[in-house]
Amino acid sequence: MTVRIMRALCLCALLVPLFFGPALGGPGSGLEYLKNNVQTRTLGNGINVIALNRGYSPTLALVISFRVGSADESYRTAGAAHMLEHMLFKGTDVIGTKDYKKEKKLLDEIEAIGEALDELKLSSPADRRIPVLEKKLKKLQDDSAKYAVSSPYDRVYSEIGGVGFNASTSRDMTSYVIEVPSEKLELWAQIESERLRNPVFREYYKERNAVMEERLMRYDSKGIEGLVERFIAAAFVAHPYRHPIIGWDSVIRHMSIRDVRDFFKRYYIPSRMTITVVGKQDVDRTFALIDRYFGRMKACCEPPPLKTREPATAGERRLEYHFNANPYLLIGWNKPSFPSDVNYTCDIIAGLLSDGRTSRLYRSLVLEKRIAVSVDAWNGFPGSRYDNLFVIAAAPRAPHTAREVEDAIYEEIVKLAAEVGREEIEKVVSREESSTVLDFQSNKGIARTLNYYQTIRGDWSGILRHLDEIRLVTPERVKSVIANYFIPENRTVGVLIDKKEKK
């Protein structure tokens, strides 16, 4: 019996308890279960719907995603995807308001004055009209607050037993998630379809200020986060992956509500939308309900594809970031994304270098040489829709320097290329398969995984092909990728330098 067959049987044994029970019949692997039981539909307007009837508890994990993130922004709109995510929690003309007719008049005035203020602050920051307009804007905001209902969706969902109501924005996509009792599926469909068809951008300027504060706390006040932001901007000189998801401070400060609304109309369209429903359900009823409510969304023209591609690197890019924080090191190599063989090989290289305490980098830098507190490697940063980076990050152990750690990392990569064998790769593949199992332990985990692959790769079954592809990685492919991509002229290096130590 071959190693591959034995590994497949072990995976089978692990997955059976997750998916099968007396009501589902005989044994089989969880991946086969997905193949046989995941059902999909494409609505007339282009929305992709994925449904999986699973489990005994009458609950559903629901994910709505759009193939839009900060990679779809320009310098003018950097941060718009994240800002839009915030605004879609504010309600509609029915949810989130006490009297929309009166509120609407105030919201129109707020928008007109807010846009005028932003233009003045950009073109004539010393204009005497600015304080007058600021005072008037504040008065209008105070008046409109009387009609707004705070966190309207939290209230609605808490009353029907919803949990985990949240959203996230990345460079590649934006997702909205919640878990509800199965019997509340239709109410969820009604609420969410209205939220997407008829959002009201109330409290816009208040929320914009909140995002600025969020940026200050999460990025500008933290060393590693600041380094990462500058590292990405250095690694991508042209491609919009260089934009921070939250946006640049100066852009957020003057982010136009009209630009955010236009961004919504341009990208939150059915052809970029995926709905995933996992849990106890009648799948046919699920498709019918989703079609009834979300099928009302009008199909729109797909935005033109992104033209900008990152130019080939022609030399090492190196930056220093000085901050009152412990030293930190980031090294990134530019590489292709899926479906390139290079991408799958880099998945294996990441596992070989840093997956677990026995991995090469951890064993050498942390346990043996003791020059690093931590070290990690991962593939596909900062996104996966376009060509991206393979990244290694490390925290030096005092008194050792980032340069010492950097040189040690390069030594280990050279050793990997010289020594890697098939057995070592097989161990990484097995761990990757086990990691996939962990993603499938809950309705929410399955829903998010299926939704991600459908949104980013255009087909949920990409998760199955991913496992097939990494099983094909050989020592020769690992050596070839290292020789062609892990080279000095193709890398970006970022170093966080502690200002206190420098003094």
| CATH homology group of the largest domain | Metalloenzyme, LuxS/M16 peptidase-like
**Low-confidence runs of at least 5 consecutive residues:** 1-28
Number of separate domains: 2
Mean pLDDT: 91
As a percent range, the share of helical residues equals 40-55%
Top CATH class of the largest domain: Alpha Beta
Query: What is the radius of gyration computed over CA atoms, rounded to a whole number of angstroms?
Result: 25 Å
Overall, the morphology is globular
Residues in β-strands, percent: 15-25%
Please provide a written account of the structure:
This protein starts with a helix and ends with a helix. Residues 1-28 have low confidence and may be disordered. The chain is globular, with a radius of gyration of 25 Å. A hairpin with a 5-residue loop joins strand 1 and strand 2 (48-53). Helices cover 50% and strands 16% of the residues. The strands form 2 sheets. Strands 1-2-6-3-5-4 form a 6-stranded mixed β-sheet, with helices on both faces. It has a 5-stranded mixed β-sheet with strand order 7-11-8-10-9, with helices on both faces. The chain has 503 residues and is an alpha+beta fold. It contains 20 helices and 11 strands. Helix 3 (80-87) packs across helix 11, helix 7 (185-197) packs parallel to helix 12 and helix 14 packs across helix 15.
Condensed summary:
The chain is built from 20 helices and eleven strands. It has 503 residues and is of the alpha+beta class. It has two domains: 63-97 and 148-294, Cytochrome Bc1 Complex, Chain A, domain 1 (2-Layer Sandwich); 317-502, 2-Layer Sandwich (Cytochrome Bc1 Complex, Chain A, domain 1).
